[in-house]
Structures are given as C-alpha cells and as structure tokens.
Amino acid sequence: MADTRCGFVALIGEPNAGKSTLLNRMVGAKVSIVTHKVQTTRARIRGIAIEGDTQIIFVDTPGLFRPRRRLDRAMVTAAWSGAADADMVVLLIEAHRGITKGVEAILDSLAERTDNRPIALAINKIDKVKSDVLLALSAKMNERFPFAETFMISAEKGFGVDDLKSWLAGKLPVGPWLYPEDQIADAPMRMLAAEITREKLTLRLHQELPYQLTVETENWQDRKDGSVRIDQIVYVMRDGHKGIALGPKGETIKAVSMAARQELKEFLGREVHLFLQVKVRPKWLEEPERYSEMGLDFKDGA
C-alpha cells in the first residue's frame, strides 16, 4: 500500500465567508452549522475527509473579526490558534466583497502567525462576479501575500472544491491516519447535537437574540430499542428573550425541536427523542462552564 498521509488544515476567513459550507462540502456531510447569520461557528469543529490515501482533518475556525466582548475574544483566539496548530491554512474570501478591511487585517496577521507553512487562497462565491473581476482580485491578493496556490471555488455549488481538496491531500505530511476511516468529525456528539439545535434557533429567530443564546446537551441516553433521548437546555440572558425563544403558546420552540430532531435523526441514523427547556441565565457569557461546552477557553476572552 502507498504511504498514507494525514494532517490538519485550518479554514480561516471573515465571518460568513463560507467556511462551514466548504467544510461540509469537503467532508461530504454536515458537521458545522450553516446560517445566514455571521459568527455562527463558535467552536473549532474538526471535519475529517478522505482523499485517496490521505486523511485531511479540517479545522473550521470561528470567523476572524474585531472582538468586542469576552465571547468574541475567545472565538478569535480559537481561530488564530487553529491556524497556528495546523499543517496548512486555507484563507477563504468572498469574490463579490473583495479585499475588505477585515481581509486586510487577516493578511497583516498571517505572516507573523503561520510560520511559513503553506497557505492557499480560496476565492469563494465566484458565480457572483465576472471573470475579469476574479482575475484582478486574485492578482491583488497574491501581491499582498505569497500564497502557495489560488483556487476559484463555489463552496455551495461544489465548483473547484475537488481541485482544492486534491491539492491539499498531496501536500500534507506522510504519516498514519489519526481517525477511523468512517469517522467524519471529532467533536463529541453531545456538542454536535447542541450545535444543530442552535442552528435551528438561529434560523428561526431573526432578531439579535441568537448571539445571546447558547444550547447545551444536558443528558444523552441510549435506549434499549436503539433510539436516543436527548435533553437540552437553551440558555438566554433575559426573561424577554425566553418569551421570544418559546414563541406564542410555545410554537417557536416546538418548531425548533421538530426541525432539530429531524436533522439529528438523519445524522445519527436512528430515532431521536429531543426535549428542550429554555432557562434564563443573565450572566452565561461570563461563566467558564459555558465556554467549555462550546470547546472554547474562557481565559482566551480575558
């Protein structure tokens, strides 16, 4: 058998650049939440893809942005440490937005934070601009930073993603695989289940509320009949938020529960009994345990 390869690839970029969509496309299954809201990825979810004899372990980092509060700071620290720990880095930018202030800030930080490891540029959402705009953007970005390779992709439609995946596979170090062949994520199932419920809440609630809530899996019980009972708590910061999350006559939380249960059933391949409770915790953003549940370090937000 040919030498196997294995390594870590960090996906970095601004919030909403399409990192979670790209991760899910590369892995071939949904392992990271995707919404129209920015800053939805909080933890560094690792998705695992196989390409020939190579196992690629993707680190989907939180979006890089200017942090304003503790959770923001912990997320940004997690993103940069994800890049620093990886064998390779892919910077994802949006074709139609070009070189924004946020992208400028990332470019300024890249050289000092990534120790000369190969960094690829992936220009996403290429269907939104004309080819001459794309070529000009690619040239400008490569003037600013010596990218090892540039890829034009559409993470949503899949265009160019196989080329990127195959290039990454060829560059990762020779070594044994770190995970079983059929494993697609290394986040605990309890955390993935909480992320799925949080995604459904985020999609359902269009106010500022989603950023001020978190979901935790409190109990996971495998039943004799093969089904699983999952109890989760939705923490919100104010009584008013609890009303919004519950909805009139509990309709919102009921709809969220149904949508999350359906997706969990498909993901786990078995019957799921999901029970959600909404609790008010005014200071959850300042509680170390909440950060641990999200896979973040409370101290990083200091």
Question: Could you walk me through the main structural features you see in this protein, from its secondary elements to its overall organization?
Answer:
By secondary structure, this protein is an alpha/beta fold. It folds into two domains: 5-171, P-loop containing nucleotide triphosphate hydrolases (Rossmann fold), CATH 3.40.50.300; 189-301, K homology (KH) domain (GMP Synthetase, Chain A, domain 3). The protein is built from nine helices and nine strands. The chain has helices spanning 19-27, 70-85, 101-113, 131-144, 161-171, 189-204, 239-246, 251-268, 288-293, and strands spanning 5-13, 45-51, 54-60, 88-94, 119-124, 149-152, 214-222, 228-236, 272-280. It has a six-stranded mixed beta sheet, sandwiched between helices. The protein has a three-stranded mixed beta sheet with strand order 7-8-9. Helix 6 (189-204) crosses helix 8. Mean pLDDT is 81; it is low at 35-41.
Largest sheet: 6 strands, mixed
Q: What general form does the structure show?
A: globular
Helical content band:
25-40%
Low-confidence stretches: 35-41
Can you tell me the CATH topology of the largest domain?
Answer: Rossmann fold
* CATH architecture assignment of the largest domain: 3-Layer(aba) Sandwich
Tally of individual helices: 9
Rg of Cα set: 20 Å
Beta-strand share of residues: 15-25%
Number of strands: 9
Order of helices and strands: EHEEHEHEHEHHEEHHEH
Strand order of the largest sheet: 2-3-1-4-5-6
Mean pLDDT: 81
Task: Write down the CATH class of the largest domain.
Answer: Alpha Beta
Overall number of structural domains: 2
The helix-and-strand class reads alpha/beta
CATH homolog superfamily of the largest domain: P-loop containing nucleotide triphosphate hydrolases
Kindly report how far apart the N and C termini lie.
49 Å
